[in-house]
Fold this protein.
Amino acid sequence: MSKKSLAEGPQRTLLFCTSFALCGDIWTGRYRRWLEGIRRGGLEYDQILLVDDCSPVAPPNWSGLVIVPADGAPAPHADLVMARFDTHLGKREGGGYSTSLGWFRSFGYAAEYARAGGFDRIVHIESDTFVLSRRLEIFLNRVGAGWTALWCPRHGFPEDNIQVIAGRSIDDCLAFFGRPYADFSAAEIEKQYPFTDIGIEFVGDRYGEYRLDVPVNADFVAQALDYPEIPEQYFWWLPRHSLAAPKRPPLRSRRSSEHDVACAYNLFLSRNPESPHTVQEKVGATIIEMIGVLIASREFRQDVLPKILNGWGFDYRGSNRLDTLKDWLLRVLSWSPEAGAAIVAAGTTASLVCEILKHPEVVPHWATPALAPSGGYRQTA
């Protein structure tokens, strides 16, 4: 069934990905997993579309899937559709930065399909990409105009695996993909989209390119690992997997992971540590206490903090929205209200982080700032 919020108005949303499968296992693995992530998540849509680059195997036998030729036929009235090309373009060898020609054709077709079907919004979530947090779902659901993408810290360019194209920007999308493919060979295509907005405040990256797990504080993951031997625990955010609802040990015995404390530190660091009262007024004493529990640990001071300040393995960009800090801590650490009250009652504080910032000589050196987007984008943070 489609997911539509009546409070958001009459806009119709098409959510799509591109597809190509060399064997049936890819349908039951990668694409079924993607579909479950969409259906179990909170993104709003009226129809899900897969645009297939003429896969050599039969389409998946999914309940409710309607298969149509990618020939400009009207969009069917169905919740789940696959449009299949009768020729395969795939990837072509050549110089420059050009990406898959098959992907390029499929994306352009999705825009044409949306316009012909009367859709007002296009949400693109690539098949190896997942939206992990409720705050990112809310952000994407509220985009009603413009061409929005996220940010890829690893490469320092907009993350095109997650996009929302709405209103008049659908015309811009049609014009963009209507150009000759060769026009885009001079630079990475991620740098050439006419994006109007970049959501830089969300934590995420193409983690599959350089690590074997997905941080628990991430809002999204792009280019997630996809091979038969990958353990199901990798997809901890999917409810059907064993780690979807993990049983937490008692709070006293739980040690914060490197990912937890790294993100907590960066979130705190993005405020003014010399004015703790101002911070406390904005986020509340309870949140200051929760952060204090993390940063006061020996693990954080002796192991994690030096690595953070050396820029080792952490690409986190602290959120600029103070009202998301509490939600992040409660979500990542799974602290109940009772556990939070117990932390506050314990009397621990965040004074340690202020002392560290006043005396940076306790660590080797400060990390260099992370790459930030430039150009004509409107940043949402």
Remarks:
- The chain has two domains: 6-221, 247-362.
